[in-house]
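Morning!

This is the sequence you dropped in the shared folder:
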Amino acid sequence: MTVAGIAAPSAEEMIALRQGAAWAPRPGDRLDLTGADRVRFLHNLVTCEVRELAVGRATRGFVTHVKGGVLADVDVVVLADRLRLALPAGRGLAVLAHLEKYRIADRVEMLPRADLAAFTLRGRRVPELLAALAVPRLEPNEWCDAELDGVPFAVRREGRGREPRYELELAAADRDRLGAAIVRAGAEHGLRTVSPAALELARVEDGELAWGVDYGEENFPQETGEEAAVSYTKGCYLGQEVVARIHYRGGVQRVPRRLIAAPGAAPAPASELELEGRVVGRLTSFAVEPRGGRWVGLALVHRRAAEAGTQLATASGEQLEVQPVEPD
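The structure's back. Tokens below.
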């Protein structure tokens, strides 16, 4: 099914993502930081706490510029001899250039890791699949090394999502070999390969904003809905003064919200949203549910239009209902 050119995933894909076990490539850029000053250096340039992280742990944060805007979201993983940064696809070189500007006398080296690839494993049955592969039980934001059919890889359990969610990272040269091995091993656990459309619908349903799609450099971390990715106790970092001022003086004026439309309706991409004749936001993401063809979207809307149940309109007359971004 498609609605206004937007493909809907199958119901079976969504069941696998939520209640079963789903598997798909995960695009993204990787960047390694090594050297004696790597922890202190990165700690001063991201919103999350880095200094207190032990080896084998991860955290989520934002790379911010001097005015507090978000240059990228980032997952920081602490390895024995380096920090690994997982960044949005296509954002690695920009973040590298940004970090290089602030490396003055710091003993830190930065290396793009285009030689790495990643997959996502998601669904309620994924823990049983990983247990069958001799992967130890992981807490959220914990990682470990593993091996399957002679292919080494790392497993990281993510700290967000309504269902168990894991990332598998490996050498790009081993991508096809590990993928085939995981599919074989997952057959008895109902593992299913899912499409980008299924992952996009799950992201929109879960209210997870994406950098470069739903927000960008002009937005502050608090506008993304990911308050847990910002520490207000870690001390100074680039842009911290602005981010902290927003937090302690009442927050931002725009907040993320889900929007739903009637089955078959599909507002135009980037449509402005109006309440009582005033523009209060703009559509940024949109996806189609497999059953009934209901349209679901994401937007940053003004607080006066953010209450659940509020009806917003587009210039073409489409009516959209505001919903909170928290999972159902």
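Headline: The chain has a mean pLDDT of 93.

More detail when I'm at my desk.
O.
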